[in-house]
Amino acid sequence: MARITLDNLAHSYKPQPTSEDDFALKELNHDWIDGEAYALLGSSGCGKSTLLNIISGLLHPSQGRILFDGKDVTHAPTAERNIAQVFQFPVVYDTMTVHDNLAFPLRNRGRDEAYVAEQVNEIARMIGVEHMLKRKARGLGADEKQKISLGRGMVRKDVNALLFDEPLTVIDPHMKWELRTQLKQLHHEFGHTMIYVTHDQTEALTFADKVVVMYDGRVVQIGTPEELFERPEHTFVGYFIGSPGMNVIPAQIEGNVAHVNGSQIALTRGYTDLSGKVEIGVRPEFARLSRDEGLPVNIRRVEDVGRHKIVRADFFGQELNIIAGEDDSISPDMTRVTFDPAHVNVYANDWRVPGAA
C-alpha cells in the first residue's frame, strides 16, 4: 500500500497546449491517503480515466509528478509501480482455467503453489466463482469474465494500490450490488488503497471513503458522501449528486437575504462583495410546499416513488424539485415553496461562498 501524491499534475493530449482549455486534466495537487478507498466521479469526458491512467503509468502527464510514498514514479513503467488495474471490459486469458487466471499474478511473482491455492480459493469464494475454477474462461459470459478480472486484481495483498476503471459496466444490476459489497469487504480486510472510477453516483457513494468529483478536467470537490450532499462546493456537485439534484436559482444577495424574482429568502450567514453569476442552491429535501409563504410556484406533476414523493414545480420558467414525505398531503392551494435557511448555499460563478457568521 502507498500514499499517492499528485504534485502540480496536469495533462493535455495536444502536443503544444496554449491555454487551460487545451488540458484534459487541469492542474491538480492532492495526497491519496494510504489505505483509503476513493471514487473518481463525474460525467463522461471529465478526465477520470485520464487521471487513473496517469497514476497507473499507462499515460505520462504533460506536467507535474506522481509520488508513491515520497518516491517519484512519474516516468516509472506500470510494472515497477506495483499496482493492480481492472478495466471497464473484462481482460482474461481464454485458454486458461478460471483458477489459472486468478493464480496468474501470484505465479508471475514466484509465489509458492500452497500460497497461490490459498489465495485463489479465498478470492474465488468472495466473488462467487468456486464452482467454476476448473472451467476454461473461453466459454464464460461477460459478467463472469469481469468477475475474474476483479478477482485477479484483488488476489495480491502486497500491491501499492488497486485501480478500477468503471469495472461493473457489463455486470447485471443485482451482481453489481454484490460485487460492490465484496470490494468494500476486501478493503476493510486488507486495507488496500483503492481508486474507483465511475459515472454512477450510487456506486461512488456506497463504495468510497472519499469521493473525488470531477468536472471539465478539474477536481471540484473531495469529500465524504455527507459533505458532498450537505455542502456542495460547486454547482455541478449539487446537480450531479442526489436524485433529483440540487435546485440552483439566480439571486441577488444583500447581507443575509437573497432576493429572487421579488421574493426574499432568509440566509443564516452574511455575504458581501459577490460578483459575476450569483445563485443559491437548495436540495429538494430541504424545500417544503406551503399555502401562504415562500416563492410562488406552479405544480406541474407529483411523482410517487414509494419512499417519498417528488414534486415537479415551475418557478418563473425554471424547474424546481421538492421532496415530500410519503404520507404528506399535497393540495391545489399549496402554491408556494419555502427553504430551510440552514441548508441554503450561496454560489458565485458556480463556486460555494462560505459567508460570515
UniProtKB/TrEMBL annotation:
The keyword Transport applies. Pfam families: ABC_tran, OB_MalK. GO terms for molecular function: ABC-type ferric iron transporter activity; ATP binding; ATP hydrolysis activity. SUPFAM superfamilies: MOP-like, P-loop containing nucleoside triphosphate hydrolases. Residues 4-241 form the ABC transporter domain. PROSITE patterns: ABC_TRANSPORTER_2. GO terms for cellular component: ATP-binding cassette (ABC) transporter complex, substrate-binding subunit-containing. Signal peptide: none annotated. Keywords: ATP-binding, Cell membrane, Membrane, Nucleotide-binding, Plasmid, Transport. InterPro entries: AAA+_ATPase, ABC_transporter-like_ATP-bd, ABC_transpr_FbpC, ABC_transpr_MalK/UgpC-like, Mo/tungstate-bd_C_term_dom, NA-bd_OB-fold, OB_MalK-like, P-loop_NTPase. Belongs to the ABC transporter superfamily. This is Carbohydrate ABC transporter ATP-binding protein, CUT1 family. It comes from Salipiger profundus. The lineage of its organism: Bacteria, Pseudomonadati, Pseudomonadota, Alphaproteobacteria, Rhodobacterales.
